[in-house]
Specification:
Helices cover about 75% and strands about 0% of the residues. It is built from eleven helices and no strands. It is rod-shaped, with a radius of gyration of 55 Å.
């Protein structure tokens, strides 16, 4: 019995919340008609906070913000209204005012798409059709500019590639003087390391040494004999005749 009583209380609470009326939305509308946009915005924000999924609150909030010349903030509210919209008329109104916000910021490409979507939800709205044609005309006369930052990045990238190619070409060129220097340095390194071949003491046999000494001795004897022969054959100096 106690559980049934608890469920009954909870049911009444949820029913009361469901039947709760939005008092801030109509109050905001009154302020809007009076052109008191600041107070109207405050009321619409309270309505939106209380009913987060209510498309009308976001749509009215976006409209009053647009009236205060804040199209960037108004765009956000109209996009939320489109997301929460449950019917085609609600979507049509939100897309139409989103297009107006984009036109005010000279985002003609986005405005064309917004008006196009508005017409899909209400093809008979002549005001939307006129704005759609105007947005296309403005887009044609003012085509979107290229992103200068992207172009600069692309140029810098291409420049880096060219510089890399130049460096590679420089590396490929051979410096003959450098090769000579490198060869000389390599030679010096070999000498320092003891890589230069040295004669081995055992390369000449003892027999060859003896033969060589004998030949030298024989040649020396021949020279001595020639000297002696020359002395014998030389004329003898005559003594003085007194």
């Amino acid at each position: 019995m106690k559980n049934i009583f608890t469920l009954y209380i909870l049911f009444n609470v949820f029913f009361a919340i469901a039947q709760e009326k939005d008092k801030h939305l109509p109050q905001g509308n009154e302020k809007f008609v009076e052109k008191n946009y600041v107070d109207a915005e405050a009321e619409y924000r309270l309505s939106q906070a209380q009913f987060t999924k209510k498309s009308k609150a976001s749509y009215n909030l976006g409209t009053v913000i647009y009236k205060q010349n804040q199209p960037s903030e108004a765009k956000y509210q109209f996009e939320k209204a489109i997301k929460d919209a449950k019917s085609k008329p609600e979507k049509h109104e939100a897309f139409h005012n989103l297009g107006n916000s984009l036109m005010k910021e000279k985002e003609y490409s986005g405005a064309v798409e917004a008006y196009k979507n508005a017409l899909r939800n209400n093809p008979s709205d002549e005001e939307t059709r006129y704005n759609y044609a105007l947005a296309k005309k403005m887009l044609k006369e003012n085509p979107p500019k290229k992103d200068d930052k992207k172009d600069d990045k692309k140029k810098d990238k291409d420049k880096d590639k060219k510089d890399d190619k130049k460096d590679d070409k420089k590396d490929d060129k051979k410096d003959p003087n450098k090769d000579k220097k490198d060869g000389k340095n390599d030679k010096d390194k070999k000498d320092d390391k003891g890589d230069k071949p040295q004669p081995k003491p055992n390369d000449v046999s003892k027999q060859k040494i003896e033969n060589l000494l004998n030949a030298v001795n024989n040649e020396e004897k021949k020279v001595q004999n020639k000297v002696k022969a020359q002395k014998v054959q030389a004329p003898v100096k005559a003594e003085k005749d007194w």
